[in-house]
Amino acid sequence: MHLEWQIKPYQDLSINEFHDIIALRIDVFVVEQNCPYSELDGKDKKAYHVLCRSGKGKIVATARILPPGVSYPSVSIGRVVTDQSVRGTGIGHELMRKCMEYCKIEFGDDNITVSAQKHLENYYKNHGFISTGKEYLEDGIPHVEMLCSS
Q: Any idea what the CATH number is for the domain that residue 10 is in?
């Protein structure tokens, strides 16, 4: 499968790109996971958005990178999501690699924080993240704070 990767600050996203990012996040986080929550939290405007498009131009994976001080003292990666059609293909791992490479380029050797859904803790461990021990419910879903030291 041919994939196209891009990383853009919010102001460089087209209206259609932002629409498609939000549509994918709502499809997965709200509909698929049956978790009503307020998707638009104002942080997208401060984020770098990682986009993965299929050969047909459809956004099949996305994440957002937030600069230090937006959600955590360090840079953070969040809203990590893949379309059902590409799960199990390794695109989710490639998405995290792209995010982490960009964090290192843009923010240097700063720590990276994620608020991981508890059932995805091993996914993030595979990318060098370690639990801080802080576990909590976020929108009714168990989460764990994780940190990756560069």
A: 3.40.630.30
DSSP string, 28-64: IIIIITT-------SGGGG-EEEEEEETTS-EEEEEE
Q: What is the pTM of this model?
A: 0.93
Instruction: Give the distance from CA 18 to its chain's centroid.
Output: 14
Model confidence over 87-134: pLDDT tens digits?
Answer: 999 999 999 999 999 999 999 988 999 999 999 999 999 999 999 999
**The total number of structural domains that make up the chain:** 1
145 token code pair: 């704070």
Q: What is the domain extent for residue 15? A: 3-148
Quick: pLDDT tens for 45-86. 999 999 999 988 999 999 999 999 999 999 999 999 999 999
Listing from the earlier edge strand, what are the strands of the sheet with 141-148?
Answer: 3-9, 48-54, 59-66, 75-82, 112-117, 141-148, 130-138
In this structure, which amino acid lies at residue 114? V
| C-alpha gyration radius of the chain | 14
Cα angle value 82/58/98 (rounded, 5°): 50
Interior/surface letters 91-107, b for 16+ CB within 10 angstroms, e for the rest: bbeebbebbbebbeeeb
